[in-house]
Amino acid sequence: MDKGRLEAINTMQLSIEGQFVANGNVENATIVKHVNDAIRALPTSLTNDYFIALDHCPEIVMSETHPVKFFRCEHGNSWAAALRLVQNWSLRRHVFGEEYWLKPVRLRNGALRSKDVELLKEGPFALLTPSDPQRSQVFLTDFGRLQGLEEGTARQRLMFYIMVNGLNAFSQGNGVDALVIINGDGIKMKPDNGRMVQATHTKTAFYVKRCVLVRDPTDRRATLKYLFETMLLTMLQRFWGHNLVTVVEDTPAETRKVLENLGFDPATFPTQLGGDLDRENYIHQWLEQQFKMEDATTPSREELPTHNPPTAPVPTKNPPMAAQAAVCPTIVNTKTSPPTAPATNSPTVLNKKTKSTECSNQPSERSNQAAGRSNRNDQEVPDEKLQIARVKSAYYSRRSYYRKKDERIQLSDECQRLRKENELLRKEAARLESLIEQAEEIEESIALILGHR
């Protein structure tokens, strides 16, 4: 990352820490400082996506991925929290795609698609909060309600939305209970299911402390339920592998009794399992509440870069002061934003035909001076598209450089490891040769003794 850009980001992080101190929240300021220090020490290959987000949408970084959330999730380990935080942004880029990952995770005008909202209304996923504040929240999953409506990474996008907007502080620090309902409609297995399960270990602001698989007692397709439970159990054992519980009962009343014994609040599982949750009514009310909250709190930045990567300053030969102030241009999404007039403190891209026409109406001396200034400006201030192309080229060159640098470091470490292993093998070979010589001497001695007898 460019030195000037890195200094700007460091200044931004320090100002965020200072805001906590100014508000009297010294504890959170200390946490943010420790996590930010750890992030700065991580390799560029891990922090690239996080720094892009911090540069383009710092308010979203702080509101949706606050360092304190990840600090709680890692039980006070700032280094692990920093690693989890930066990997969360890399996961977010993969899940939402280049066009949406820098937008707020909202139902309207955000990272979710309209089809995602329709799928959310069907109720395949829900985050339920028990009445006891000292109990963890329950992430309810019912694959039977997907009904083939999802596309791409819709499951992951909905999980991001629910966890960003519904997870409380207790569940961040103590984990979430996952409750999976299995029926004869199937579990809609996808290739990336295992990777998403693995991501909860290291890349999300929460972790799953226990996963409970419950066969739907109201569904009589016992063979199909057994088959789908076995498939899901195999996948979870491979990619997750701990604290797995299966519940197999014939009636909702018996299922309720088992879930209560496992510590679940009846308000956190639906009536089909014997619980008190009216899922349709709950989802309707929850979505209404979310829409109202979004309407009341409009984010400060909705129009964010979609396709273009972040830009960085390009060193030029003796650039004018105006060009120095605007050497990192703002990339505007031309699909959604109308072109704006250049600011007074930014360099103006001159049109040669217009300039020559204007100069012809002036006295000869002033015309020559203006023409000279025009030529200099044309040389010093390139066309806007050319400027953006150069900036992008410089950014990708730096990224390629650091990627290759990391690869060289890894190869160097591997070379050192192989040298040490080779040295150990050489010593082991010498030891074996010594043992062979000793064995031959012992054999000769035994033969000599037997010959004397």
Which fold does the CATH topology of the domain at 112-275 refer to?
Phosphatidylinositol Transfer Protein Sec14p
Which bin fits the share of residues in helices?
Answer: 55-70%
Strand content: 5-15%
CATH class wording of the domain at 112-275? Alpha Beta
CATH superfamily of the domain at 112-275: CRAL-TRIO lipid binding domain
Rg from C-alpha positions?
Answer: 31 Å
Mean pLDDT equals 77
Number of helices: 17
Q: Which strands sit side by side, in order, in the main sheet?
A: 1-2-3-4-5
Unreliable stretches, pLDDT < 50, 5 or more residues? Answer: 299-367, 373-381
CATH architecture of the domain at 112-275: 3-Layer(aba) Sandwich
Shape verdict: extended
Please trace the helix and strand order, writing H or E for each element. Answer: HHHHHHHEEHHEHEHEHHHHHH
Q: Briefly note the structural class of the backbone.
A: alpha/beta
Q: Please tally the β strands and state the result.
A: 5
Distance between the termini: 83 Å
The largest sheet, given as strand count, sense and whether it forms a barrel, is: 5 strands, mixed
Blueprint (SSEs and pairs):
Layout: H1 3-22, H2 26-41, H3 44-56, H4 58-64, H5 67-73, H6 78-96, H7 114-122, E1 125-128, E2 138-142, H8 154-166, H9 169-174, E3 176-182, H10 193-202, E4 208-215, H11 222-239, E5 244-247, H12 252-261, H13 279-296, H14 321-325, H15 352-360, H16 364-380, H17 384-452
Parallel strand pairs: 2-3, 3-4, 4-5
Antiparallel strand pairs: 1-2
Helix pairs in contact: 1-2, 2-6, 3-4, 3-6, 5-6, 10-11, 15-16
